[in-house]
Structures are given as C-alpha cells and as structure tokens.
C-alpha cells in the first residue's frame, strides 16, 4: 500500500514499477500516503496524510505514481512491529507543511506505479506480481524440485501465494494437495481452487478424521509427499506432516496462525524431515538485476489469474481522516480472517 | 541391556561384539534376560527371566555372552512403546520350560558381549561404543562440518552423546558451547565437562537472563554458531536458537524433555534456519560393513573417556523376581532425571 513516491533512477525501474524492490531505493516525497507514527494494531494506528505536491525530480531520480497498492499480511506485521525488517522513518518531510507528528512510517511494500511505459498485464496482476508469485515460483524451484506427476502439499492454499503455487504447479503437471480452513461455503472455495488447477482440496478439520487421513494416504499421497509449503504453522501444520514421505522438505514462508512451528522431534530423527524457510526479500538481495527481471518475465508469461480482489478507492476529495478511517476498517475486516479477497488501495487524484 | 544371545555368524561379528547391530541379526536363546510382555512404564512392567541353558549354536550362528548391558534412554522409550522401531516378540522360546507369559520382548539394544577375541578397550567403553559415540561423531561430520576454531552448540551436554561430542570436538580443536539443566552442584558438573574438553558450559536458566545472553553473544558466539545439536527439544532448545548464526543447521537426535520442537516460524523465513535429524540406526543400515568397522576403529582410536557409570550386578544366585526389582528401581531413579551416570547391567553367572 505504497503512495506516490520518488525513486532514484536505477536500472531496477527502467520498466514499469512491478516492484517491491523499488522501496529500497526510493524516497517518499509527495501526495497522499497511509502512515503511522507508533507501532500497534494497524486498524487503530494508521492515518492518512497528504504531502505537498512533488517538486520536479532531482537528477538520477524520477517520480512515480502508485496506481494500486495491495495490503499484504507482511505489511500489517511491519506495522505491528512483528516483522523481521524494521521500517525506516520518513523524516525528510518535516518541513512544517503538515501537522503529522515526526518521525513517522509509510505503510506498504508492493504495488503498481506508473513511470512511462504501459505494463502489458492487468493492473491487478501488475500490482501483485512482485511478492507472492515469485515466492510461489521460487519455493517450487529452490528446494526439492518436483517434476511432472509429483505431488506438492500446502496449507493456506487459498492465500495469494497458495493460489500462485496451484497455478504454477498445474502448468507443469505437478499435482497439488491443498489445505484450507473450513468455512460455511467451503464447496465454493474448493471449486474456485480447482478452477485454478488444484488437484485436491481438504480442510484442516478433515485431518482430525482418521478415516479421511487414511483415505488420503491410500489414494493420494501413497508413499507421502516430498515437498510441503507452510503458510500457517501451528496445529494444522503438525497434522499435515503425517502425510509426508521420509526425507521430505517442509518450507515455511508464513505463520498466519500466529503459532510457532510445533513438530514432534521424532519426525526429524526417524523420518529425516528437513525444515527450511523462504524469504522473497532475501532472494531479491541475493540475485542480480538480470535474474530479477528474468523472473518477472517468466511470471508475466505464466499469465497467472488475478487473485480474488477488491479495490478500495481512496478519493482525492476525502479528508485524510476519512481516508484513514476507510483503510482502518478494511484492515479490521481482513484481520478477522476468511476475507477471501486481496485488498488493493487506489489513491485517487485530488481533482 | 541385552542378555546372552545367540547371533547368526555374520561379518558383523567377526570382532568382539561392540554391537547394537548384533540384535538385528540375533536370536535370543538363553540365560537371564530383562523382559516385558506389555508396554508401559519400564519401572513397572519389566521382569527378569532365566532361560534354559544355551544348546550348541547351529551352523552360521555363534553364542555370545553379554558382559555389560547399558540402559539407554531409547531402551526405555521402546518399552514405553514411544519409539519409532517396535521390538519383535520372542516366541521361539515358549517350550514350556519357564512360566513367563508369551509373547514377550527382551529389553536393550547395546552392550559388550564376549565371543573369542579380547577387545582392547575398557569393558565400559566397549559396552557403550556402538550407540552414543558414533551418533556424536556422525552429527559432527554429516551436516555442517565444523573446522578447527569453529563453535558447536549443544544441549543435554552431560548426556553420554553430549560427552562424546565434547571430546570428539576437542580433539579437533572445535570449540563447544554446552548447555545443561541447572542443579545444586552445577559447578562440579561444569568442571567435569570442562575436564572432558568443553569450552563453555551454561544452564538453560542462564538463557532467561538477558545480560548473560548478551554476554554470550558478544564474547562467545559473535556472529552465531552454525551447528546446534539437540538432545532435549522444548523450551531450552527454543531459547538457544537465539544464539544461532543465519543459515545454521539444528540437528535433533533426542527429545529428553518429552516436549516437541517448538520454533518461531520467523527463524526459518528470515534467518534461514535448517532443521534436520539424525538416527544412528539408519546410518548403520545405509552403510556397508566396511564403513561400520571403519567408524568403530576411528572411535576406538579416539580413546574417549568412559561416561560416568554405575554397574548394577545382577547376581546369578538371585531369583528372577529379585533381579527384576533391582532393575525396576534403578530405572525409576534414572527417570527422575539428573542421575548423572550411565547404568550398565552385569548379568553374573549362576555359579
Ligand atoms: N516469505 C516470503 O517471502 C513471503 C512472501 C509472500 C507472502 N508471505 C507470507 O505468506 C502469507 C500469506 O500471504 P498472502 O499475501 O498470500 O496472504 P493472503 O492472500 O491475505 O492470505 C492469507 C491466508 O492466511 C490464511 N489465514 C489467516 N488467518 C489464519 C489462521 N488463523 N489460521 C490459518 N490460516 C489463516 C487465510 O485463510 P482464510 O481464508 O481461512 O482466512 C489465507 O489463506 C503471509 O504470512 C505473508 O506474510 C511470505
Ligand atoms: N538419534 C540417535 O541415533 C540417537 C543415538 C543415541 C542417543 N540418542 C538419544 O539421545 C538422548 C540421550 O541419550 P544418552 O544415552 O546420551 O542419555 P543419557 O546419558 O542417559 O543422558 C540423558 C540426558 O538427558 C537429559 N535430560 C533428562 N531429562 C531431561 C529433561 N526433562 N529436560 C532436559 N534434559 C533432560 C539429562 O540431563 P540431566 O542430567 O539434567 O537429567 C542427560 O543430559 C536420548 O534421547 C537418546 O534416545 C539418539
């Protein structure tokens, strides 16, 4: 949920900003932003702020305008001060032209911003291509590399990452065994994920039923799956490990249950389980600009379906207080869980 | 805590039986054994039984006589039915010559047994060389291979495995950061471990003290350790992970706390933690007889100090009931924890 920002003109942004990476070389300069000055519950601490108009960019810089800014779980964790990377305060703007207490932080890490060229993807795809799809792609390629016909298991299968996993796997003929939380309209979720290419969809509740587990073992996993992707941790993850093959790799990328990873030690000793983690930000740091662009190209060519989404229009004519209220209340709803749609902020121009 | 057994004459036992492996190709035949017919608390379910005298071995077999039979934690787990491998019942001996209910199981997995040659190690060393020292040795060599000057961290450092880790590491100039449970005479335990070559010894309680942790970080671990060996799981293990370097490997081989491995998912995602497990039995299965003998030779040459031990003499003149009572009560004491000595059973001859 980045607002308009100014970026130094680096190689990174020769193409339309698909770019979480942008923020590492960017300076916030103008227009409206969603900000906070103390850490806490995002549905309480967020404010909106309108900065002065952008002056023309200094040399080696350019101005970009964010078109759509998704609200990702990690954005909320940063605001709660529960994320590994700490945000840098914006203090360069304290020129007395607005009344927001200094220092403050700008929320968000991803989005679609306009520079010059047009992007060739849908706005929503372009706004959500730099964090979740590459995470899915890299997790399928950096550990145990499943081949056509192999089975990959994941939880949080309806997350944006999970949906990308399903689609990328399906393109390669990799079967997916997907787990989601139960809900009243579970069948429509199952149908939706199957329409993306999911081979099997179950709920964590199913894992409490011995017969279903036995059925999954005999008809689906057989000798077990060798790759499991973990978005959730806690109890569901522990239950799923019974479906793993010996010497399987469990890759964690999220902890949406807010529980730790709790695993019987015997899995490591007797079944040779291997636990790893994946962080897309680190992948970006460790790879060259060429490799990053190559990955974006690969992902763009996969033409993944947009995640189910909802755009929150933040009217240019609304006051900062009204905008803050809009953002806070959608976040409160997201935090209740089972929201089912990625929310993207659209900062509309004032006139 | 194996009794006298008969083994098929395989390559494995061309040399004096140093051999947990023996049991995989052995048939129990005679004399006294510590047995059980239902799973449960070993301090309650164990009995002693005297089998008829051994007949002469059939072809391709030989008779061996156990001299010392250590009581290892895994032996107790097997009896509790909490171990990965299930024991096989002994039913070939139901010839009505004793009154023990059939089927029953014989406890134990390691020991020193006599065949023909003499062994060149102390009895205690020979009786305890096939499970714990190879586990220590292989964990130091199969994952991150630490070099001279590197630091390895472990919990359960006063376990038989832990003591072997300390000594093997010290021989190679590898520093060890050791953790144990607190106790009234903690200083004498620290001195003992340091006499084995331990570089640093702390208690899990020390990890609750911020200043001590900070001190360990600045003076000992610095950028963190890259290899941690886990005998304990649960809370202490979680606390210790704060001392790990990025991309460190945590190798689990025991779960003495009876707690699962509980780790924040963030360690995997942001610090690239890698969790593995080690099982010596599997190592034996996966390696040739030559490799096994090579390892035993290497370990024998390291001349590790005997673990602190206590020999429980099971008198040949005592009744099976008396012997069972002796074994049960020492196990009850071991189960209280902080026992500090490896208990070895010596089955004394009847006359
Ligand atoms: N490591 C990386 O590099 C990386 C990259 C991208 C994302 N991530 C992480 O991946 C996770 C998903 O991100 P996203 O953008 O895909 O999120 P998203 O589209 O908002 O989806 C969130 C997912 O979490 C599930 N969830 C929420 N609360 C839960 C709970 N208490 N128990 C079980 N499941 C719960 C939701 O299921 P319901 O529908 O049942 O609520 C949904 O499947 C986040 O933790 C994010 O930080 C990590
Ligand atoms: N994976 C393998 O291949 C392999 C091979 C050998 C051994 N093992 C396992 O390694 C472990 C140690 O075996 P060992 O023969 O070395 O055992 P041992 O000499 O009997 O030592 C047991 C150790 O466990 C500690 N302990 C007991 N209860 C504890 C608790 N509740 N919390 C924390 N620590 C506790 C003891 O510390 P205190 O003095 O404080 O009681 C002691 O350090 C066992 O779990 C065994 O099954 C595994």
Explain what you see.
The structure is a homodimer of 351-residue chains. The first copy, chain A, has 351 residues and is an alpha/beta fold. In chain A, 32% of the residues lie in helices and 22% in strands. Chain A contains twelve helices and 16 strands. In chain A, strands 1, 2, 5, 7, 15 and 16 form a six-stranded mixed beta sheet that branches. The first copy, chain A, is globular. At the A-B interface, strand 13, helix 9 and strand 14 of A face strand 13, helix 9 and strand 14 of B. Strand 13 of chain A pairs antiparallel with strand 13 (261-263) of chain B, so a sheet runs across the interface. The site of one NADP nicotinamide-adenine-dinucleotide phosphate has 26 residues of chain B, from helix 2, helix 4 and helix 5.
Radius of gyration of chain A: 21 Å
Which two chains share the most extensive interface? A-B, 30 and 30 residues
Oligomer: homodimer
Helix vs. strand class of chain A: alpha/beta
* Elements of chain A, N to C (H/E): EEEHEEHEEHHEHEHEHEHEEHEHHEHE
The separation of the N and C termini of chain A measures: 21 Å
Could you tell me the strand content of chain A as a percent range? 15-25%
Helix content of chain A: 25-40%
Low-confidence stretches of chain A: 2-30
Q: Report the biggest beta sheet of chain A as strand number plus sense, adding barrel if it closes.
A: 6 strands, mixed
- Count of DSSP strands of chain A: 16
From the spread of the alpha carbons, the general shape of chain A counts as: globular
Quickly count the helices of chain A: 12
- Please tell me the overall pLDDT of chain A: 85
Instruction: List ligands, each type once.
Output: NADP nicotinamide-adenine-dinucleotide phosphate
Protein name (chains A, B): Alcohol dehydrogenase-like C-terminal domain-containing protein
Keywords (chains A, B): Mitochondrion, NADP, Oxidoreductase, Transit peptide
Family (chains A, B): Belongs to the zinc-containing alcohol dehydrogenase family. Quinone oxidoreductase subfamily.
Pfam families (chains A, B): ADH_zinc_N (PF00107)
């Amino acid at each position: 949920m980045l607002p308009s920002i100014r970026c130094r003109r680096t190689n990174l942004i020769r193409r339309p900003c698909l770019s979480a990476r942008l923020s590492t070389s960017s300076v916030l300069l103008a227009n409206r932003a969603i900000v906070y000055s103390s850490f806490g519950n995002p549905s309480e601490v967020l404010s909106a702020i309108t900065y002065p108009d952008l002056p023309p960019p200094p040399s080696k810089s350019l101005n970009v305008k964010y078109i759509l800014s998704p609200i990702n779980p990690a954005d909320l964790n940063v605001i709660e001060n529960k994320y590994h990377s700490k945000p840098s305060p914006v203090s360069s703007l304290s020129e007395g032209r607005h009344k927001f207490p200094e220092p403050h932080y700008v929320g968000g890490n991803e989005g679609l911003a306009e520079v010059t060229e047009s992007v060739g993807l849908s706005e929503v795809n372009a706004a959500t291509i730099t964090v979740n799809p590459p995470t899915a792609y890299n997790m399928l390629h950096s550990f145990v590399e499943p081949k056509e016909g192999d089975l990959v298991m994941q939880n949080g299968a309806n997350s944006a990452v999970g949906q990308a996993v399903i689609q990328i796997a399906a393109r390669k003929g990799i079967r997916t065994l997907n787990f989601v939380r139960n809900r009243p309209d579970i069948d429509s979720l199952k149908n939706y994920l199957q329409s993306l290419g999911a081979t099997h969809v179950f709920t964590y509740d199913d894992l409490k039923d011995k017969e279903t587990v036995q059925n999954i073992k005999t008809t689906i996993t057989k000798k077990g799956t060798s790759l499991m992707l973990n978005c959730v941790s806690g109890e569901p993850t522990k239950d799923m490990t019974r479906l793993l093959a010996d010497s399987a790799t469990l890759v964690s990328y999220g902890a949406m249950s807010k529980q730790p990873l709790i695993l019987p030690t015997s899995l490591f000793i007797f079944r040779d389980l291997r636990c790893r983690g994946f962080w897309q930000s680190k992948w970006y740091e460790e790879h060259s600009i060429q490799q990053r662009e190559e990955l974006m190209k690969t992902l763009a060519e996969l033409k993944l379906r947009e995640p189910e989404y909802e755009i929150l229009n933040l009217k240019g004519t609304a006051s900062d207080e009204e905008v803050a209220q809009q953002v806070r209340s959608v976040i409160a709803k997201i935090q209740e869980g089972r929201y089912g749609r990625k929310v993207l902020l659209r900062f509309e121009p004032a006139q």
